[in-house]
Amino acid sequence: MSLQCFLMNLPIRWKFSLLLAAQMFILLGVSTLAWFNLNGGVANQRSVAQSTPRVDALAQARHRLMLVRAEQLGILGGANAKGFVEKRLPKLQTLEAELEASFVKIMANPWSSQDKEALATGIESMRSYIRAFQALMGVAKDSQEATMKDVFMKANLRWVEEAKEAFNGVIAAGGCQPGPRGPG
Hints:
single chain; about 180 residues; mainly alpha; Four Helix Bundle (Hemerythrin (Met), subunit A); 7 helices; about 80% helix; rod-shaped
């Protein structure tokens, strides 16, 4: 007896019961999949919530370094203009103070010892970049040549690049995600 013949000979009540059982089985399967996906989504959301303060601290420090760099380049460009440097230095000092506050915020987050070491290297590179500004300022005041502007644009960039590489290395290695390289 074939399946088709068997189904044709079943009473209508049994056919509806089989249909209901099949629908319940499918609904159970879909519900189970939804449950696992929902739990996975909640776990991913917790993971993102844990790493967000660390990523934010790194992004703020990089952003503030670029603000300091832009202000320094502006000051270097106008070093020979009377009163310009004196007018812009308070803004530069404010930006540098905000950058230092960013360093404190970075190191206040939980990092692995390997990540702390990389971050300390990046922070020290940023501080070296800031300290080197005074030497450039002396050159800028003594220089009357327009060609020096290109020199100022490229000056001390190695420290900026070192800092970016250190921060990007921490992010790429998973230092901003909980797990084996996360807090601990």
